[in-house]
Task: inverse folding
C-alpha cells in the first residue's frame, strides 16, 4: 500500500481521466474532437452501408450556381424571380418548397409585394429567419420582411459550431426556449415537419416529428449524417440538384417538357438556394466544404432517416473513460518500458478502433479525443516518473558501485534496470585473491614514491583485466587484490569469467614485468586463488564506514588457495567447485587437501586453458600426469615415482612433480596405511 501511495503518476492518471469527463461534457477540445469525427465520417461513407447512407430521393436542390448567374445576366438574384421559381416549382407538384435566401430587409426596388403574391400562390413555402443571441442567451428571431412573413412560414438557419476557434458544422442544435416563438425551429426541422405534415415538438431531450423520435445529446443537438456522394462529384448539388434557370419561366413549356421537368420536383422537398462561389455561403463540415443549402438538405435527410448517428449515453461515456483508465493503470505497473509503451498503444488504438467501428457500422458517436488526450498525458506522466527513477537509480549505482566495477557494467545495470541490492544477501559467486610473491623483498631499496608507482603499475593493468571480464573489485590490501563475480549484477557464468580473468592476468603479468625491467625494477610473480560457492554480499562495516564486500567460508577458502599456490609452484589455483562450474576447462588436478582451519577436504586444480585453445601435446602430458597421480593414491610408490621422475626431467620448471617425489619418498619411509584417503593436510596458510 505504501508503494502505491508513492506512485504520484498513478494519481495523476486518475486525475486526468476524471477531468476528461467534465471536459468532454463542456466540449473544451471540440476542435480536436471534430477532427476525429471527420475521419470517422469519411470511413463511414467509404466502409459503412454506402447504399443505406445515401440521401433520400425525396430531396432535390434547385440551385443558383455560376452557370445560372452567367445565363441570368445579373447579380444578385431578384426577389420577384425567387417568388416566381417557388411558384413554378409548386405548380409542378413539389410537396414542400423551402427557400434558403435571406430576405429580412425590405427590397429597395419594391419587390416584396409581387414576391409575396407569388409565395402566396405557391402555398406551403418556408423562408429563412435568423435567431439572435447575446452572450449565449436568446434575444429574438429576426423574420423575413413583414410582407413575406405574412404569406409564408419561417425558420432559422444559423447553426453554431461546437468549436469556438474554427467553424465546423457537424450538428444541428434545437433551442427549447425558441420553439415557442414564430420561426423558432431550425430550418431543416421545419422543412421535414412540413413534408411529414406534422408539428415538431420536444419531449424532454427527444425531438418528435410524428412517428419519428430522435434522441438529442445534452446540448439538444443531433449529429448530421452527411451522405456519401457519387464518384466524381464534390457537392451534393451536382447529383441531387437542378439549375433554378429551368424553373424561372415554365409558361412556354409544352406538356412533355412540363412533365419531364415535374419529375424532378413532384411530391418532393425542394430546397432553393445559392451554390455559387461568389456567395461564400459554404462551411467546413466533417466531409469538407459544403454549401449552406446542401447542409440543410443533409440535415433534412438525417431527420427523415430518424437520425442514424446517435450519441453514446452519458453513462456509457463515463464507463468507457473509466475502463480505459483502469487498463492504463494496470499497464503502468509493468516494469518494462517497451511493454508499457506497447500496452498503452494497444489500449488507445483499441479504444480508437472500437469508437470508429461503432460510428462507421452502428452510428454510435462516442467522444474519442478526451480519452486519447488523457491516455497520452497519463502515459507521459508514468514515463516521466520512470525516467526520474531510472536517472536516480543510475546516479545511485554510479555512487555505490562506480568505485568497484567498470563503467560498462554500471551502464548495463542502469540500462537493464536490474534490481541491485546493497544489503546483505546470499548468492552463488566466485571470489579471487591475488598476491605478489615476496613483496617485502621487492620493495626493499625503493623510495615511497617509486613503491607507489610500482604498485600502481601493477594494480592498474590487473584491475583492467578484472573489469574486462565483468569482475567487481572488492578491495586492495597492499599488494593483494580481492575481487568477485556474480554481484552486484547477476552473472550465471561468474565462474567462467573469473577463470578467464585469472588466465588473462597471467598474460598481463608478462607485459607488467617488461615495463618494470625497463624502469630498472625487479620482475614480480603473483599467486591467484579462486573459489566458487555461497557467499554473503552487500554493504558491510560500521556506522562510520561501509564497504561493498563478500564474506563466508567460501571466501576464506579462496584466500587459502591463493596462499597454497607457492607450495605447488603454480600461479593459479582453483577449487573443485570452480572447476565443475566451467565446462570445457582443461586443468591439472594438483591435490586433495585440507586447508588450515577446515576439516572438509577439497580438490584443487591448476587451470591450463580452454579445450579449443590448448595444444594437444599439453593434453597428452596432463593425461600422463593424472595417471601418475592415480598410482600415487593407490600407494604404488615405485611406479608413481618413476612416472614423476620422467615428467620432472621433461618439465623441470613444474614444481608439482618434485612435490610428489618428496611425498613418495616420505611415504616409502613412513607408509600412510591402508585407511589413507590421499588427502594432504596443510598446517599453514
Result:
Amino acid at each position: 500500500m505504501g508503494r502505491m501511495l508513492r506512485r504520484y503518476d498513478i494519481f495523476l492518471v486518475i486525475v486526468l481521466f476524471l477531468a476528461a469527463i467534465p471536459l468532454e461534457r463542456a466540449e473544451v477540445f471540440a476542435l480536436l474532437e471534430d477532427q476525429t469525427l471527420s475521419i470517422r465520417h469519411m470511413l463511414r461513407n467509404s466502409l459503412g452501408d454506402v447504399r443505406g447512407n445515401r440521401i433520400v430521393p425525396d430531396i432535390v436542390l434547385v440551385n443558383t450556381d455560376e452557370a445560372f448567374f452567367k445565363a441570368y445576366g445579373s447579380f444578385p438574384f431578384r426577389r420577384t424571380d425567387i417568388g416566381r421559381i417557388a411558384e413554378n416549382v409548386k405548380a409542378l407538384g413539389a410537396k414542400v418548397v423551402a427557400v434558403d435566401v435571406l430576405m429580412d430587409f425590405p427590397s429597395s426596388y419594391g419587390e416584396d409585394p409581387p414576391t409575396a403574391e407569388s409565395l402566396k400562390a405557391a402555398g406551403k413555402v418556408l423562408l429563412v429567419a435568423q435567431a439572435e443571441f447575446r452572450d449565449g442567451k436568446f434575444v429574438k428571431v429576426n423574420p423575413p420582411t413583414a410582407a413575406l412573413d405574412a404569406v409564408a412560414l419561417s425558420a432559422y438557419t444559423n447553426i453554431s459550431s461546437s468549436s469556438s476557434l474554427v467553424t465546423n458544422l457537424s450538428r444541428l442544435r434545437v433551442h427549447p426556449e425558441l420553439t415557442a416563438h414564430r420561426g423558432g425551429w431550425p430550418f431543416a426541422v421545419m422543412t421535414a415537419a412540413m413534408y411529414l405534415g406534422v408539428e415538431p415538438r420536444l419531449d424532454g431531450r427527444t425531438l418528435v416529428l410524428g412517428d419519428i423520435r430522435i434522441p438529442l445529446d445534452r446540448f439538444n443537438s443531433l449529429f448530421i449524417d452527411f451522405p456519401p456522394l457519387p464518384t466524381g462529384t464534390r457537392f451534393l448539388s451536382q447529383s441531387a440538384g437542378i439549375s433554378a434557370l429551368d424553373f424561372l419561366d415554365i409558361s412556354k413549356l409544352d406538356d412533355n417538357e412540363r412533365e419531364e421537368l415535374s419529375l424532378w420536383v413532384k411530391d418532393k422537398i425542394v430546397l432553393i438556394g445559392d451554390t455559387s462561389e461568389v456567395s461564400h455561403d459554404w462551411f467546413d463540415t466533417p466531409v469538407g466544404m459544403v454549401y449552406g443549402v446542401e447542409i440543410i438538405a443533409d440535415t433534412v435527410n438525417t431527420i427523415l432517416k430518424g437520425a442514424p448517428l446517435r450519441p453514446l449515453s452519458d453513462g456509457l461515456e463515463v464507463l468507457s473513460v473509466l475502463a480505459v483508465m483502469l487498463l492504463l493503470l494496470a499497464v503502468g505497473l509493468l516494469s518494462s518500458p517497451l511493454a508499457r509503451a506497447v500496452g498503452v498503444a494497444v489500449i488507445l488504438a483499441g479504444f480508437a478502433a472500437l469508437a470508429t467501428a461503432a460510428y462507421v457500422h452502428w452510428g454510435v458517436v462516442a467522444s474519442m479525443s478526451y480519452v486519447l488526450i488523457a491516455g497520452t498525458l497519463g502515459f507521459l506522466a508514468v514515463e516521466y516518473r520512470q525516467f526520474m527513477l531510472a536517472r536516480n537509480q543510475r546516479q545511485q549505482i554510479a555512487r555505490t558501485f562506480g568505485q568497484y566495477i567498470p563503467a560498462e557494467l554500471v551502464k548495463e545495470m542502469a540500462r537493464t534496470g536490474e534490481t541491485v541490492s546493497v544489503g546483505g544477501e546470499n548468492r552463488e559467486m566466485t571470489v579471487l585473491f591475488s598476491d605478489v610473491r615476496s613483496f617485502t623483498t621487492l620493495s626493499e631499496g625503493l623510495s615511497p614514491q617509486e613503491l607507489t608507482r610500482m604498485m600502481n603499475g601493477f594494480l592498474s593493468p590487473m584491475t583492467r583485466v578484472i573489469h574486462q571480464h565483468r569482475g567487481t573489485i572488492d578491495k586492495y590490501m597492499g599488494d593483494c587484490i580481492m575481487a568477485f563475480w556474480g554481484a552486484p549484477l547477476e552473472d550465471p557464468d561468474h565462474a567462467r569469467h573469473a577463470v578467464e580473468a585469472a588466465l588473462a592476468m597471467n598474460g598481463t603479468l608478462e607485459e607488467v614485468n617488461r615495463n618494470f625491467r625497463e624502469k630498472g625494477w625487479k620482475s614480480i610473480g603473483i599467486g591467484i586463488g579462486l573459489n566458487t560457492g555461497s557467499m554473503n554480499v552487500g554493504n558491510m562495516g560500521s556506522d562510520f564506514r561501509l564497504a561493498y564486500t563478500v564474506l563466508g567460508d567460501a571466501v576464506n577458502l579462496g584466500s587459502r588457495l591463493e596462499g597454497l599456490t607457492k607450495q605447488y609452484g603454480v600461479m593459479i589455483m582453483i577449487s573443485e567447485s570452480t572447476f565443475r562450474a566451467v565446462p570445457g576447462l582443461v586443468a591439472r588436478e594438483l591435490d586433495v587437501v585440507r586447508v588450515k582451519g577446515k576439516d572438509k577436504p577439497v580438490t584443487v586444480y591448476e587451470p591450463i586453458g580452454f579445450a579449443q585453445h590448448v595444444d594437444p601435446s599439453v593434453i597428452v602430458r596432463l593425461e600422463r600426469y593424472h595417471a601418475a597421480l592415480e598410482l600415487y593414491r593407490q600407494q604404488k610408490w615405485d611406479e608413481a615415482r618413476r612416472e614423476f621422475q620422467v615428467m620432472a626431467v621433461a618439465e623441470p620448471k613444474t614444481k608439482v612433480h618434485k612435490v610428489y617425489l618428496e611425498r613418495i619418498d616420505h611415504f616409502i619411509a613412513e607408509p600412510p596405511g591402508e585407511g589413507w584417503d590421499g588427502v594432504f593436510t596443510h598446517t599453514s596458510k
Observations:
- DSSP finds 24 helices and 25 strands in the chain.
- The two ends are 53 Å apart (CA to CA).
- The first strand starts at residue 59 and ends at 64.
